[in-house]
Design brief:
about 300 residues; alpha/beta; seven-stranded mixed beta sheet; 13 strands; about 35% helix; globular
């Protein structure tokens, strides 16, 4: 019988003041039911019950899990691939904007397309990827240096100018350990770039329990701005910039429509993706996904 962990307190602030936020299902794969709790102290949203870490892998075992898939056999995947190729160039521009350094570590590098783009742009690249199949693909197809999670503590301290996590932190079971590793491996003048889904976005509020970016139980945590800032500050990082990922609202809306009706509705998905972006652009800045640029702070 598979074991599960009922969440009783918040990893970020250690408060046990958790309130029910939402009931929802794993619409993507298992059909199992979960809930999201809200920490009333720091605002972190937490998936419960949580499969034990050794059991989480089965929730990723699908040919349609697109972050580990390079197939282009259907229109959604083809659209995803086109957008990804565009956004890869934008991500490299973000690196150049916030850091002059050339040593980069991508935590959760999947099949390595981002690191391959960085490598071709003159960066010295390393990756960490827990999934053996994705790690092997990155190594063999792109010639990348990609480590397993077990090798993470073997990397030299203060050896990276940039550490990136593109839609990865929400999957991490131990947030404190991950931030400690980021702090240890980052050079004193380095930056961390963290991209996350945003539950405060208009598309999240519209789709509610069907919002695909909740993606339980693969997403163990769900970060609104103040929760991420709280966690960053806890480990002496400051948030120096918050940037939008404008394409995410369209893709997430497309999946969300499919979860509601069982089939994609391209018009409605485009409409809600556009509405979400327009609302964010008009002043609240709450795009479907946000990129946080973190810099290490040091006391005098």
């Amino acid at each position: 019988m598979e074991q599960i962990l009922q969440v009783a307190d918040c990893q970020a602030c250690e408060s046990d003041n958790l309130a029910h936020y939402m009931d929802l299902k794993d619409f993507f794969l298992s059909g199992e039911s979960f809930s999201i709790l809200e920490c009333k102290k720091c605002g972190l949203l937490i998936t419960t019950p949580r499969p034990l870490e050794q059991d989480l892998s089965r929730y990723y075992q699908s040919d349609d899990y697109i972050s580990h898939s390079n197939k282009q056999s259907d229109i959604v995947s083809r659209l995803y691939q086109w957008v990804r190729n565009y956004t890869l160039s934008r991500k490299v521009k973000i690196l150049k904007r916030f850091s002059a350094g050339k040593n980069i570590l991508d935590l959760g590098c999947a099949t390595g397309e981002f690191l391959a783009k960085c490598k071709h742009s003159g960066y010295n690249v390393s990756g960490v990827e827990p999934d053996l199949k994705a790690r092997t693909f990155a190594q063999q197809s792109h010639g990348l240096e990609v480590h397993s999670l077990a090798d993470l503590d073997k990397l030299a301290p203060e050896s990276f100018d940039i550490i990136t996590q593109w839609h990865v932190l929400e999957h991490v079971s131990d947030l404190n350990a991950r931030f400690e590793v980021m702090s240890k491996l980052l050079k004193k003048d380095g930056v961390c770039i963290v991209a996350l889904p945003n539950p405060n976005a208009a598309d999240a509020k519209h789709y509610k329990k069907y919002w695909a970016a909740y993606d339980v139980p693969r997403h163990l945590f769900h970060f609104r701005r103040h929760a991420l800032i709280f966690l960053a500050n806890k480990f002496d990082f400051s948030v120096s910039a918050i940037l939008p990922m404008k394409f995410d609202s369209y893709y997430v809306s497309l999946l969300s429509e499919k979860y509601i009706t069982g089939k994609p509705n391209y018009f409605k998905a485009f409409l809600w993706g556009l509405k979400s972006n327009l609302k964010a652009r008009s002043g609240n800045g709450e795009y479907s996904s946000l990129i946080y640029v973190l810099k290490k702070t040091y006391s005098a």
